[in-house]
Specification:
It contains nine helices and 25 strands. The protein is of the alpha/beta class. The chain has two domains: 199 residues, FAD/NAD(P)-binding domain (3-Layer(bba) Sandwich); 207 residues, FAD/NAD(P)-binding domain (3-Layer(bba) Sandwich). A hairpin with a 2-residue loop joins strand 23 and strand 24. Helix 1 packs across helix 9.
């Protein structure tokens, strides 16, 4: 809850959009097409999280041809390449210019609170009233650091994936990377390439080849309809939304990055980090089972792609069916590491991220601090959220997923405004 002193309301608007990343700008485009008066608040610059909260070498997991926003798409010479962070920033900034979005940069929302008929938005540059609010501030603002980190000895350097930029900031010595989703694998690969010994603690993960039967795996996810799977078609939606990101990396040679490659290059694999006692790290013995399950699920995915090719007579049928070697977990499991022995000097927490709603003074958060919503329609009148994993579709958190979700929610928002009136009748407690 905000403790900032309340300011006088200086401006009114029908809709406030919080966040000028791909989701906020996509919503702005549809609101503009519907002639709905709105403003977009961004605490930094356009595409701020891409500018300030990513490591130096990161590239998108999706190929350039999938970089699309409403009425706008990649038009460069390398459709099968993967954008660097600088290119992502240029793309999103170019979209803001293209749409003439009413973005106000450097505006930090300090408090969002309900009032009679709408919302009050207190910022570092005055207070606004709005009939409706769209929260597009991102799903990956704060790193999730396990409680076990509190027991790590003081001489061990700890770095979150949120703060990581490159291995150059590390102390000499070995590195333990905790987490084996896309982030964990990419960081482990880069750190290992810098010459530091790497140990990777592996939990649940989603294994995928970068290329399958001559096409990027994202092509198959799109063509078979997997990326368009709808949230209402799943019974255990929380489970689907909590799945880790697939083990992919975007490189010029479209290489597959998996645990086998890391092992071949010298990385040591362990099971999940379970605890620390007297300076000793303790790992789960489930590494083999976890990897076997990931291998099984990848096989099912490839089976479904093969069936789609057979049924649709795709030209790619000329490429042979492929299967990949099972994950090699080694002969003996590593169940512990003595941090006093000097083999590990740095721990990198690649254990996920969560949104930051510390400024949200509306009772819409569940017991874990996540917004309660039904496909982006928040459990509060006239409030919406965008850009969350599998929010409405499997592709929701990808750049190209913003268009369909924003279109759906802008329609719902327009109906809401038509029923409840636009600005002018809002009662504020000032």
């Amino acid at each position: 809850m905000s403790t900032q002193p309340r300011k006088s309301v200086t401006s009114s608007v029908d809709v406030v959009v919080i966040g000028a990343g791909q989701s906020g700008l996509a919503m702005s485009r549809f609101l503009g097409e519907r002639s709905i008066e709105h403003v977009v608040f961004e605490r930094g610059e356009v595409a701020n999280s891409w500018r300030t909260e990513r490591w130096d070498s990161l590239r998108l997991l999706t190929p350039n041809w999938q970089s699309t926003l409403p009425g706008y798409k990649y038009a460069g010479p390398e459709p099968d390449a993967y954008m660097s962070m600088a290119e992502v920033v240029d793309f999103i900034s170019g979209y803001a210019t293209f749409t003439r979005a009413p973005v106000r940069t450097g505006i930090e929302v300090q408090s969002l609170s309900p009032v009679d008929g709408g919302y009050r938005v207190d910022t570092n540059d005055g207070s606004w009233s709005a009939r409706a609010v769209v929260i597009a501030s991102g799903a990956f603002n704060v790193p999730i650091i396990p409680k076990v980190s509190a027991g790590i000895p003081a001489h061990i350097q700890q770095v979150s994936a949120h703060d990581y930029r490159s291995p150059n900031s590390f102390r000499p010595g070995g590195v333990l990377v905790v987490g084996a989703s896309a982030t964990g694998l990419q960081l482990a690969d880069e750190i290992q390439a810098s010459g530091r010994p790497v140990t990777l603690a592996v939990g649940e993960h989603v294994r995928m080849p970068r290329v399958y039967r001559g096409r990027d795996i994202q092509y198959w996810m799109h063509a078979t309809g997997l990326l368009d799977e709808y949230y209402k078609d799943f019974d255990d939606l929380n489970r689907v939304r909590s799945l880790p990101s697939p083990q992919l990396i975007g490189t010029a040679d479209r290489t597959t990055l998996d645990l086998n490659r890391l092992s071949r290059n010298g990385a040591r694999l362990t099971g999940r980090l379970m605890g620390v006692r007297d300076g000793n790290l303790q790992f789960s013995g489930s590494l083999r089972n976890v990897c076997s399950l990931a291998d099984l699920k990848m096989g099912r995915l490839l089976d479904s792609i093969d069936e789609w090719i057979d049924m649709n007579g795709a030209a790619e049928a000329r490429f042979p069916v492929e299967r990949f070697a099972p994950t090699d977990t080694g002969a003996a499991a590593c169940l512990g590491i003595d941090l006093g022995a000097g083999a590990i000097s740095t721990i990198v927490w690649a254990t996920g991220f969560r949104p930051d709603y510390s400024w949200l003074d509306v009772p819409v958060l569940d017991r874990k601090g996540y917004i309660r919503h039904d496909g982006g329609v928040v459990d509060a009148p006239g409030m919406y959220v965008l850009g969350l994993p599998f929010m409405r579709r499997r592709k929701s958190s990808f750049m190209h997923g913003a268009e369909d979700d924003a279109r759906d929610l802008s329609e719902h928002l327009a109906v809401y405004l038509d029923r409840h009136g636009r600005r002018g009748s809002l009662k504020l407690a000032i």
